[in-house]
Amino acid sequence: MDVRRTINDNNAPEPQPVRAAAPVRRTSDTSMLNRVVAVLFGVVALGVLIWLGARAYGSLTADNAVKSKQFQAVFLTNGQVYFGKFTQINSSYVKLTDIYYLQVQQTVQPSSSSSNNNQQVSLAKLGGELHGPEDEMFISRDQVLFWENLKNSGKVVQAIDKYQSSGGQ
Q1: Which residues is 149 bridged to in the sheet?
Q2: Residues of the chain predicted below pLDDT 50
Q3: If you placed Cys at 103, which of 25, 124, 149, 157 could pair as Cys (CB 3.0 to 4.6 Å)?
Q4: CATH class label, 67-111+118-165
Q5: Three-class SS of residue 153?
Q6: Of 65, 92, 90, nearest to 147 (Cα)?
Q7: Please, what's the b/e burial string for 137-156 (b: 16 or more CB within 10 A of its CB; e: otherwise)?
């Protein structure tokens, strides 16, 4: 008879390997606090980076889009349009110099012909008004609907060139 068989025939359970209990991880309060602080710091740092990137993108876009050797048309929320050159742009204001605007003149007593002939549009240079403004304007960015770079071949720039070549008359 085999010895192994006799042992197993005694209905004795086979010995099982001893398993070590899994270590219990207890997170201390300071370890948890350190994790929370690290996560908060990461969120704040990410927010600051996004904010700085947005500011840099906004200012670079406006500054790079301005063709400084050309005139710009600035359309305001009140319907007024000014033509000039941007010399400064920041988050609060744009500075416009060498400023012109359109002036519409209507005849007091229209003739019996078409009413379209009653209006004359001319370009006026800023500075000759009753209140005598200087030739620079600081416009709140909130009041600017949009602006455009003007081509030198456009009628407004040609009229400005003609005005400047005639000595401002």
Answers
A1: 72
A2: 60-61
A3: 124
A4: mainly beta
A5: coil
A6: 65
A7: bebeeeebeebeebeeeeeb
